[in-house]
Amino acid sequence: MLAVLCGDRHPPDMGPIESGAEIRYTDEKGLPEALRGADALFVYDFLSTAVPGAWHAADRVRWVHIASAGVDPVMFPELRESDVVLTNSRGVFDDSIAEYVLGVVIAFAKDLPRSLELQRERRWQHRESERVAGRRALVVGTGPIGRAIARLLRAAGLVVSGMGRRERDGDPDFGTVYASADLATRVGEFDYVIAVAPLTEQTKGMFDAAAFAAMKPAARFVNVGRGELVVTSDLVTALREGQIAGAALDVFDVEPLPADHPLWTLGNVVLTPHMSGDFVGWRNTLVEVFADNFARWRDGRPLRNVVDKQLGYVPSGQ
Length: 318
Hints:
- The chain is α/β, with parallel strands linked by helices.
- Helices cover 29% and strands 17% of the residues.
- It has 2 domains: 2-92 and 280-299, Rossmann fold (3-Layer(aba) Sandwich); 94-271, 3-Layer(aba) Sandwich (Rossmann fold), CATH 3.40.50.
- The chain is globular.
- The model has no long low-confidence stretch (mean pLDDT 96).
């Protein structure tokens, strides 16, 4: 028995799975009933926070798969401490998010947001732009998405370093990886700071007033990780006071971003609605990843993308 949390939008291409299992599709309200007697849960609605509140009804669940790379919506104590296997959809969004990051880096360097404003105003205003080649970028988060970002930025001529749990040299994608504990002492060396770290107790709020104050005044901040990595009020202050030159934000601590939020009115900010990884066909690809793991689970073979529930992400090497 498979429970699928999907809300109003059913996942596509479920035919092969439906032919081999009894499936209960459900929204958040019906999740407790769908979980009773279910052996596995597919969290297709990966933005939902309903699983912890319904978990009391999960009397047989042995495997949970979430249709995203981030697993924070299902990292509640009861699941973390259980022997239920948790897998994610690592690998689906790597290249797409990397392309987004390269796009906003170029947009900042070439002042494209201002060009669009001037175009709407029908104003001819010549300006000089920046080069991206030779600029330094720090990618905070050294998982597969961070590595894809590093490779693409390096191909564009940027000098890229990484930041992760521990410091090391000789990394094939980052060269030098700095320890996250040293964020405030290292971040001032970089022109672009890209946040893509998983959300854990250690990373929550890591970009705070101290981090922004330590950045270059000309630095740009990009967040494609989780909104909760950032103390948003501190970011707003840093942007207003010129502590940093700009920000590109695809994720927020509250989504959708409220219409009266100050981020909407800041001229040095690019906002997108949590779409940096969403290429045409991404929903089908998410189901393909789950279908592969479902076949493995049904056949008793090892699952892919098994999350270390103490770390909160899939360890390197899987």
